[in-house]
Amino acid sequence: MLTKATPKPPRWQRSNYSPLTRQIDVFSAAAKLLCDLLCDKTLGQDSPSHRNSRAQWLVEKLLDLGPTFIKIGQSLSTRADLIPLEYVQALSQLQDRVPPFSGQDAIAVIESELGNSIYALYRDFNPQPLASASLGQVHKARLHTGEDVVVKVQRPGIEKLFNLDFEVLHRLVRFANRYLPGFKKYDMEAIYQEFFELLYQEIDYIHEGKNADRFRENFDKYPRIFVPKVYWKYTTRKVLTLEYLPGIKIDDRETMETCGINTNEVIQLGICCYLKQLLEDGFFQSDPHPGNMAVTQDGSIIFYDFGTMAEVKSIAKDQMIKTFFAILRKDTDEVVNTLTYMGLIEPVSDMKPVKRLVAFILDKFRDKPIDIKEFEKLGSEIYLMFEQQPFRLPPQMTFILKSLTTLDGIARALNPEYNLLAASQPFVKSLTVSKGQGKAIRELARQAGEFIKQKWQQPSGTEIILRRLESRIEEGELEIRVRSLGSDRTLKRIHLAIKSLIYACLTGFTLLAGTVLLLSPQTKWAIVAFSFSGFWFFILLYSLIQLGIKERLDKFIDK
């Protein structure tokens, strides 16, 4: 009789997995990545396709290392200020592809935590999980009172693994700060401390339950936002029992359309909901991926996961309010001032390139989703500005960017041409008639009123263009640039030819050295020299092929 082979548990989940083995696994992965990056830099292999292959390798390695590193990858996917675009795109697709643990293990955790047998606690309990992630999994159950619930169970041994990874990564951060000076500017210690603080909060289900209660209170008067009720009698640090609220996955456009749900209304509700969280409540879900949100049959939104909530301090909230309405008004100076005040832009002696970039973004992307490829239109001086890093992202602002970019991705899945300005209109209109108390509410209402007034008094399109032209002439920003494409191509060919000449010299030198050593008693060094000669010959061959292809392309273009 044939039986299906039971898949082996991941390496990090095995009982005989020692701390020393874990440290070797982490350090070897980090060393390989560092060596590969240094090799790429030395050989000039910096094409987008090559960076993409490196990024895909990194994703697979993070999955292999387990929960801690999956979470690190998901956090890094928002850090466009730290890592190249190809890595951001690859890591943004990183999902919790971790196999579920057995239902018997889940029952053992529940019984140990709640101090009773599973059927004394629940009338029914399905040992097959509804969903599984790196930190835990969810089972459907029914209470003896008849309510359907979901039981979230922490993965066995996860806290022990986090403690081990905490120490291993701290050693890695200290090593990088000591021996790799380039890492110091990223303040890795602060990022590391904040990451693990939030990670430990995420595996504390009592903390998550309190977050759910607070979130539900904030939306108590909003009938189209659903938050599951927490059953505290059946909740501990490792077990969380919640009301069962099924729905359609929020990015499942096809199912929504089949059910007659207006996806544009769902986008509008989601955008307004997040604007309220960020600008009014200062308490928001920092990881709104499709698995954490769903849609009911009438188009309402259900929120599920509250382990990754974040808060916005009152002073930052005021500045975010000003930034939001400055974006709606396309007020470049105000946007730059508020972002600088919040620490998102580092002041430099000449802020004109920064203002040009912000003005470009406001002009091109205020009314539609951001397309990274469009940034190519900014020109080489903007890329130079990025290399000098006038933009920075403090750790506490990471979660705001993460939630907004994730929400943007969901909105694109429902409607690729969605309009942020149109989607936020109901929120803006509700503020103009708001009589709520508190500094934040008053500031929101004031900004909303000024925005509506500005829209009524908006000058004509011709007048706006003339004002912009006059402003750029006065500030010396209007430039006429002439660039010779032919000269650029020639310089690139010369650069490749010089590199080929260097590789040819290295090949010849090592070949000659090997020949001389072959005639001496030191024959083993001759083999080493011949090996190096072969290595440099292959690099020379690759460089010559590149040069030949470039010359042919240039001739074809010049025809």
TrEMBL record:
Pfam families: ABC1. Keywords: Kinase, Membrane, Transferase, Transmembrane, Transmembrane helix. The chain crosses the membrane at residues 501-519, 525-545. CDD domains: ABC1_ADCK3-like. It comes from the Bacteria. GO terms for molecular function: kinase activity. Residues 93-337 form the ABC1 atypical kinase-like domain. The keyword DNA-binding does not apply. InterPro entries: ABC1_dom (IPR004147), Kinase-like_dom_sf (IPR011009), UbiB_kinase (IPR050154). Belongs to the protein kinase superfamily. ADCK protein kinase family. This is AarF/ABC1/UbiB kinase family protein.
